[in-house]
Write a structure and sequence with these properties.
The protein has about 375 residues and is α/β, with parallel strands linked by helices. The chain is about 45% helix and about 15% strand. Strands 4-3-5-6-7 form a five-stranded parallel sheet, sandwiched between helices. It is globular. The chain binds 6-O-phosphono-alpha-D-glucopyranose. It comes from Papaver nudicaule (Iceland poppy).
Length: about 375
């Protein structure tokens, strides 16, 4: 029953809306609630025999393409925080172009929805040749990446048909957050932090259900933006990846130019683009970067930027500098899980823009679900 649209008009729409369920399936059997005998913890059977090696690695190198790369980028801060191991990111084709260093002491993690992307597979072959421990994170049991890695975790998001990845993205982030929790499981000082994240994971499907209620609001926003040439998305910290992924969704399906921008780089170029016409989404939900994002909003406003601010519920009037600013208020969760919530309105915006602009939602021109050639 997964491979029909049900009452939805497009697969992408269905896949966006089924995220509370896909996330539940991703976490099923893997979260331990904890009681007087058992600690609150995460269980990933596919990694358990390799955890010692992973913890002793010189680096954790995450490798992927497109949305899968963005998912790894979203999980990077929590992986760095909890694992105690340096974490680096590689776009598969770029790693191969550079013949970048991969060592025997590295753990190389391959993130791929399909498990069949040629660039990622070639990077896997390269990492195997260099003797790294290779871990797969895929949505496809029996795929080339799950067969050829030493161990791994399936994201269990269910079949994804729309070429633009949506539910696989949020499930990948959740799996990588769980990987961070498992690797850090032997560190007593972060026990409290890990328990809060696990509580956040239990509650995440409900929060996603809540944020999906913004559907009509995002449709209204899409109507406002339908004829624009371009849309910028500013994010930083946990939500730099959200900015990249939101912009990727908008450009790949609605065929509107869109760019995700690291807000910390604003002054080094992007500020020159700001005027009263170009719409800019600024992600400013509550986390350690909130104050810095508030200052970014002020600076964009001072240059008459046309702002759409995504903020935590209740923060609308606090973050908006003027009446011309539009607000998207989203439910708040643990900082490292917030990217799962924040990407949803942007997925909805991309979807509605595409429908309004009359383009093919599930099969964007020139793109394929799985790129199996180089
Ligand atoms: C293609 C798809 C993207 C996807 C990327 C990586 O470009 O259109 O949606 O993110 O490949 O695919 P993978 O299956 O490796 O995650």
């Amino acid at each position: 029953e997964q491979i029909n649209k049900g009452h939805y008009e497009h697969y992408m729409q269905k896949e966006i809306h089924e995220q509370p369920e896909s996330l539940t399936t991703t976490m099923r059997g893997r979260l331990i609630r904890g009681d007087s005998c058992k600690a609150k913890s995460v269980l990933l059977g596919g990694l358990k025999d390799h955890l010692k090696t992973i913890r002793r690695s010189r680096r954790l190198v995450f490798i992927g393409c497109g949305t899968s790369y963005n998912a790894a980028l979203a999980a990077r801060p929590i992986l760095e925080e909890l694992s105690g191991v340096p974490v680096t990111m590689e776009i598969a084709s770029d790693l191969l172009d550079r013949q970048g260093p991969i060592y025997r002491e590295d753990t190389a993690v391959f993130v791929s929805q399909s498990g069949e992307t040629a660039d990622t597979l070639n990077a896997l072959e390269y990492a195997l040749e260099n003797g790294a421990l290779c871990v797969g994170i895929t949505n496809t049991v029996g795929s080339a990446i799950s067969r050829n890695t030493h161990c791994g975790v399936h994201i269990n998001a269910g079949c994804e048909i729309g070429v633009a990845s949506t539910k696989a993205y949020t499930s990948q982030i959740v799996v990588m957050a769980m990987v961070a929790l498992v690797i850090g499981d032997d560190t007593i000082s972060s026990k409290g932090r890990r328990e809060s994240i696990i509580d956040g994971l239990f509650d995440l499907p409900n929060k996603v259900r809540e944020v999906l209620k913004l559907d009509q609001e995002m449709k209204d926003l899409a109507k406002l933006l339908v004829s624009e040439q371009s849309l910028l998305v500013f994010g930083r910290g946990y939500n730099y990846a959200t900015a990249l992924e939101g912009a990727l969704k908008v450009k790949e399906v609605s065929l509107m130019h869109s760019e995700g921008i690291l807000a910390g780089e604003m002054k080094h170029g992007p500020l020159a683009l700001v005027d009263e016409n170009l719409p800019i989404v600024v992600i400013a939900t509550r986390d350690a970067c909130f104050t810095k994002q508030q200052s970014v909003i002020q600076q964009l406003h001072a240059r008459k930027g046309r702002l759409i601010v995504m903020c935590s519920k209740g923060d609308g009037s606090l973050v908006c500098p003027g009446e011309s600013c539009r607000v998207i208020e989203v439910p708040q969760t643990e900082d490292c899980l917030q990217p799962v919530i924040n990407v949803v309105p942007l997925q909805l915006l991309a979807y509605h823009l595409t429908v309004l602009r009359g383009y093919n939602v599930d099969q964007p021109r020139n793109l394929a679900k799985s790129v199996t050639t180089q």
